[in-house]
Amino acid sequence: MDIAIVVEGKNDRSRLRRVLDDRVDIYCTFGTPGTEQLEKLRKAVGDRQVFIFTDNDSSGKRIRGMLRDLFPDAEHIYTRRGYAGVEHTPEDYLVQQLEKAGLDAHIVLPAQSPASQWSKDEF
Questions:
Q1: How many C-beta neighbours within 10 Å does residue 47 have?
Q2: Are 52 and 75 a contacting pair, CB within 8 Å?
Q3: Which residues are within 8 A (CB) of 23 and not within 5 positions of it... i.e. 6 or more apart?
Q4: What is the pLDDT of residue 83?
Q5: CA nearest neighbour of 86 among 13, 5, 27, 26
Q6: 63 contacts 29 by C-beta, under 8 angstroms
Q7: Could you say which residues of the chain have pLDDT below 70?
Q8: pTM (two decimals)
Q9: What is the end-to-end Cα distance of the chain in Å, rounded?
Q10: 53-65, pLDDT tens digit by residue?
């Protein structure tokens, strides 16, 4: 499946990149996009399946509406109200939302830090 995910900013993209493999292109709107930027985004995405993943605040909802018009067949991924945007959403919740969207094959689970791999019984 040839897919593209559209997010608001580079920090959102960085956060998603931690849990998605490199085959998934992640595009940024860099805030509220203008007409010219929307057209560039449409051309860059081409005929791929689009997933829209914006913040759950007023700006994110406004951008989601613009992207919904641009990509009417897009799938929508949502972060939980209360998280300070996609960039601050816990990775386990991001993975759950990506799985719900059917992107299981593209998920890369982050490596655990060496300290978290030891159990207290081993000391």
A1: 7
A2: yes
A3: 106
A4: 86
A5: 13
A6: yes
A7: 1, 110-123
A8: 0.85
A9: 46
A10: 999 889 999 999 9
CA distances from 99 to 3, 9, 19, 81 (A): 14, 22, 11, 19
Identity of residue 35: T
Amino acid, res. 64: R
Task: Give the orientation angle of helix 58-70 with respect to helix 35-45, to 10 degrees.
Answer: 60
DSSP 75: E
Sequence-distant contacts of 44-47: CB under 8 A, at least 24 apart: 45/4, 45/6, 45/71, 47/2
Contact criterion met (CB below 8 Å) for 92 and 78: no
Which residues, 6+ apart, have CB-to-CB distance to 99 below 8 Å?
Answer: 107
**CA–CA separation, 95 vs 73, rounded Å?**
22
Spatial distance between the Cα atoms of 89 and 71, rounded to a whole number of angstroms: 24
